[in-house]
Amino acid sequence: MKKMWVISGLALAALATVAGLIVMYLLPLDLGERSPVQPIAFSHKMHAGTNGIPCLFCHRYAPLSPVAGIPALADCRDCHQFISAEAPEIKKLVGYWQRREPIPWIRVYWLPDHVYFPHMMHIRARLDCAVCHGEVAAMPRITRSVHLNMGWCLDCHRQHKASIDCWTCHI
Amino acid sequence: MKRRTFLQFTAMSAAGALVSGCQSANEKLIPYLVPPDEGVTPGLANYYASSCRCCPAGCGILVRVCEGRAKKIEGNPYHPVNRGKLCARGQAALQELYHPDRVPQPLKSSGPRGSGQFTKISWAEGLGLLSGQLKTLQREGGTDRLALLTPQLRGTLATLTTGFMRSFGSPHHLAYEFLAPDWLRAATRKSFGQPSLPWYDLAQTRYLLSFGAEFVESYLSPVHYGGAFGRMRQERDTVRGHFTYVGARLSLTGASADRWMPARPGSEGALALGLSRLILAESLFDRGALAANGLSAQTLLAGLAGHTLPRVSQLTGLSEQVIAEVAREFATTRPALALAGEGAAFQSNGPESVRAIGLLNLLVGNLNRPGGVYPDLGSPIGAENSFAELMSLVADMNAGRISLALIQGNPVHGVAPATGFQAALARVPYVVSFSSLLDDTALQADLILPDHAALESWGEVIPLAGTRQPVLGLMQPVVTPVFDTRQFPDVLLAVAGELGGSLPAALPYSSYLEMLKKQTLRGGAPSGAKDSEALWESLLQKGGRFGKPGQGSGYRWSAGAPLPEPGEPRFAGDQGKFPLHLQVYPSTAFHDGRGAPLPWLQQLPDPMTTVVWDSWIEINPKTAAALGIGFGDLVEVSSPRGSLRLPAFIYPGIRPDTVAIPLGQGHSGGGRYAKGRGANPLELLMLGPDAAEPAPSWHATRVRVARVSGEGGLVTAGHPQGSYRSDLIGI
């Protein structure tokens, strides 16, 4: 093989690697779907926006637990056995209840397993839900509008004088 | 196309596939159907204090429960027995709760006994069958044809079963466990006039001499004594203490010793008396102690005259120098402590050997003193000869005097077949088992009324030993019952109610919880229901009622108690045909076999051999070489009773004339993890050297070993040759 080709080939490979690394650093790495289609077209805009239902009414474990929780099927049914019973999406809901099948929602906000995120600590710090979850009350379909990466969390922690010790989040 | 083009296309499509594959699918988020029960917060754990009943030690536990599911068991830091520590068996109790082979509802047998064919029935039908059987006995005037078999019970469960049997009118309540320390109580009564189990102050002793007492593995209260041993070694600034272990086999406990004395099996008592004689002869004994116990050195010396150094050396196979050294060390390092364990007690001269070892404690003046031995105030009385009761029941069953047997526990596996128990049980027309896992006993039953798992049960657990003070550990359910099961005491109460007559009057409780509450709070709460509730809750939160170490009467040599006379050990089996001694020992994983259904314990490598998922026989390297046995070979072990096939483990820490097999495997039932695995060495045991005088001399059986093939199928967690330095251990 010609020496010229080997050198230019290696140089190209090195350049490609560096370019790739830059791209990886700049691009957001959440490769999951940002706004997946849900089994039932639940509209936060309708519930939290138009009807003004507070977040904690349904996601009731947020002030108590590391997980915020999503409402049990019975909680949805409690209202919707009377409200909008004729709507096609509500009929879907009733179908799930009659089959005693929990609705398999598609997850939109998550953190990797090596991160410990306790909701109750952030509620205690009087953080508004919209700070991390975006303007949910304006979303007809829930969308991940914020990129949850560590630098973003640390910025807020530094600003609010919260702990930035490794073990706080990486237990 | 050109080859280059083809390669380019391939690379591009491969890259494209890779990139698209990088996008991961979102997780699903599955909500509850109905909101969880009150007190359950998803993501937050509740901790419940309870008590472990995996062995009689009765440690306190804390169970972490998330969303109504038990997740982890740890020790309860407040509990005086274990102080926050817990052994592997307690940790694995979690697997009993969610075991895939749990009996979900009552079963009625639909095939021959042992076939495992059962049909599911309702509780109404199951209780009806049981009360029907009991009513028939009442009608025919044969209430004494009922037998109840349980492990050794304490507290309200003992009160309930005694009350039930007495009111029903049957004397046949057998409370038997293979490893129960009846022998220790009997020896203590004979020497010290009271049958309380001893509590050993290991943490403050400076010279520990253990005669086959495996206090780190299974003896009395292993978690407690393991912790105390750690404190003995490390708690005091410049004192490490000295530990000498006497036994034919170097156990896990013995492996922590500073000196191992591999005395000939059955010579432990002679050794103890030889040590005593030397201590007396060289005036190293505690004068005040002898005087306080009403003994005279001259009389003792005269009685021990036969146990000279040469004689004891000949009996034990140990050198005179070593024996003298240990005697002097033991007597001059105060406080010193001698422990008598199953290693000594299970010999034919066991009862007297244990007393001889107790005498050593008296001579060095450690009775009722720090670093010595105290009576365990929590365990002042208990069974002293349950073996005799077992043999009596076997005779009754054989003679057809028992029509109905109610069994809690697994005696079909845990009782040595030489007693004839299993054959006798086959003659009982109706057998009811309360097993929750279809164990060996349940397979022989006609009706199964499954008990709750321990983590679903109410109860109290009174530690067998391990504290100086009375301790009442409470057991509470940490989850709602997973299956349609009921607690054994509740079944008895329900049946008592149905039978009527004097039974409900003797047991005036609607549930076992009510009885437990009443008995626990009795004499404890100031007046007023609200105060009792508050007290009950505080006891549950703490894990029980833990008394303070009281004074109580100490140990004192009983006036007129004879000098211990162990005599020569005798063995079952002709020495020519059966040249080796067999020692069976409770494995750290399974204890006496109750842990075998749990896969964590099967997977737990044995601390000394690292064997998993199997049984094995330990053979000394010289003996194995002489018999042509290599590591892992399949060998046949034969006793006068029968034979077993096991893989061989070449074990330098055992006398050349002894072999050892761990207890616990060899189940015919108990679920998928226990069934058909390993072998049960109880099948080899004889009832002592004299067929005419059955005795629980479980180490008095001789065996022979022969190689069968090279396919033992042994699986060890470590390198087959082990990581021990076998050149450091030798006899």
How much β-strand is present in the residues of chain B? 15-25%
What does the overall shape of chain B look like?
globular
First-to-last CA distance of chain B? 80 Å
Show the largest interface: A-B, 25 and 19 residues
Radius of gyration of chain B: 28 Å
List the total number of helices of chain A.
Answer: 9
Molecular shape of chain A: extended
What is the H-and-E element order of chain A? Answer: HHHHHEHHHH
Total of DSSP H or I helical runs spanning 4+ residues of chain B:
24
- Averaging pLDDT over every residue of chain B, what do you get? 93
Strand segment count of chain B: 26
Average pLDDT confidence of chain A is 91
Task: List unreliable stretches of 5+ residues of chain B.
Answer: 722-726
Determine the structural class of chain A based on helices, strands and strand pairing.
mainly alpha
Largest sheet of chain B: 7 strands, mixed
What is the alpha-carbon Rg of chain A in Å? 22 Å
Pairing-aware structural class of the strands and helices of chain B?
Answer: alpha/beta
- Helix coverage percent of residues of chain A? 40-55%
Question: What is the number of beta strands of chain A?
Answer: 1
Strand content of chain A: under 5%
Low-pLDDT windows of residues of chain A: none
Write the layout of secondary structure elements.
The complex is a heterodimer of chains A (171) and B (731).
Chain A: H1 3-26, H2 44-50, H3 55-58, H4 73-80, H5 88-98, E1 105-106, H6 119-124, H7 129-133, H8 150-159, H9 166-169
Helix pairs in contact in A: 4-5
Chain B: H1 3-21, E1 28-29, E2 45-51, E3 60-66, E4 69-75, H2 88-92, H3 94-97, E5 107-109, E6 118-120, H4 123-139, E7 146-150, H5 156-168, E8 172-175, H6 182-192, E9 198-200, E10 207-211, H7 222-234, E11 242-246, E12 259-261, H8 268-281, H9 287-292, H10 297-303, H11 309-316, H12 320-332, E13 336-340, H13 342-345, H14 350-363, E14 373-375, H15 386-398, E15 404-407, H16 411-414, H17 421-426, E16 430-433, H18 440-443, E17 447-448, E18 459-461, E19 471-475, H19 488-499, H20 502-506, H21 512-521, H22 529-542, E20 544-546, E21 580-586, H23 599-603, E22 617-619, H24 621-627, E23 634-639, E24 642-650, E25 658-663, E26 702-709
Parallel strand pairs in B: 7-8, 7-15, 10-11, 10-13, 11-12, 15-16, 16-17, 21-25, 22-24
Antiparallel strand pairs in B: 2-3, 3-4, 5-6, 5-17, 9-14, 18-19, 19-20, 21-26, 22-25, 23-24, 23-26
Helix pairs in contact in B: 4-19, 5-19, 6-14, 8-11, 8-12, 8-14
